[in-house]
């Protein structure tokens, strides 16, 4: 993984901050927020996209209203950390339709994932039909999210320059 930091100026930083809060903002509205003309704003936005600082645009969906209000943080420990086991697990987890996030982590757990379900019975189904069928799984620990305190796409520290 390349951890190269890209230099951006204060205006680009402000543009990124505004776009991280509302990616649908027009260039006119964005320009007003950062004191640029809409033409200059459009040019800078295009440069930020081309440099890969803006990886894409998404809609933030209300999963409660869509019927998937229960979030489960799942910790998975594998019985092997051999490269082939990791590859096969990662390929299989991508086929889990209830999973929105999965990362390989350090510590006692090998992977952490976020699963979204309709009910506790639905989680039982997901556990049996998706999670327990993943290859090389030694242990699954589930933590139900009781209340979401904060959800940020980008931590504010990124924009402190």
**Portion in helices:** 25-40%
> What CATH architecture label of the largest domain applies?
2-Layer Sandwich
Overall shape: elongated
What is the H-and-E element order?
HHHEHEEHE
Provide mean pLDDT, rounded. Answer: 93
The Rg value, from CA coordinates, equals: 20 Å
Counting helices, strands and paired strands, the structural category is alpha+beta
* Record field, number of beta strands: 4
- Spatially, the strands of the biggest sheet line up as 2-3-1-4
Terminal residue distance: 24 Å
Q: Can you tell me the residue ranges where pLDDT is under 50 for at least 5 consecutive residues?
A: none
Main sheet characteristics = 4 strands, antiparallel
CATH class bucket of the largest domain: Alpha Beta
Strand content: 15-25%
- Enter the CATH topology name of the largest domain: Alpha-Beta Plaits
In a nutshell, what does this entry contain?
This protein has 161 residues and is an alpha+beta fold.
Question: What do you see in this structure?
Answer:
Helices cover about 35% and strands about 20% of the residues. By secondary structure, the chain is of the alpha+beta class. It has two domains: about 40 residues, Arc Repressor Mutant, subunit A, CATH 1.10.10; about 80 residues, 2-Layer Sandwich (Alpha-Beta Plaits), CATH 3.30.70.920. A four-stranded antiparallel sheet has the order 2-3-1-4. Helix 1 packs across helix 2 and helix 2 packs across helix 3. The model has no long low-confidence stretch (mean pLDDT about 95). Pfam families: AsnC_trans_reg, HTH_AsnC-type. This is DNA-binding Lrp family transcriptional regulator. Keywords: DNA-binding, Transcription, Transcription regulation. GO terms for molecular function: sequence-specific DNA binding.
């Amino acid at each position: 993984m390349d951890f190269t930091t890209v230099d951006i100026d204060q205006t680009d930083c402000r543009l990124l901050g505004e776009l991280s809060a509302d990616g649908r903002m027009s260039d006119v509205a964005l320009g007003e927020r950062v004191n640029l003309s809409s033409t200059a704003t459009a040019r800078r936005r295009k440069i930020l996209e081309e440099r890969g600082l803006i990886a894409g645009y998404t809609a933030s969906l209300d999963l409660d209203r869509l019927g998937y209000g229960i979030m489960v943080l799942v910790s998975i420990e594998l019985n092997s950390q051999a490269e082939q086991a990791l590859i096969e697990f990662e390929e299989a987890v991508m086929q889990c339709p209830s999973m929105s996030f999965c990362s390989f982590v350090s510590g006692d757990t090998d992977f952490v994932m976020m699963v979204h379900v309709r009910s506790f019975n639905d989680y039982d189904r997901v556990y049996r039909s998706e999670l327990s069928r993943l290859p090389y799984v030694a242990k699954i620990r589930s933590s139900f999210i009781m209340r979401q305190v904060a959800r940020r796409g980008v931590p504010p520290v990124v924009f402190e320059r």
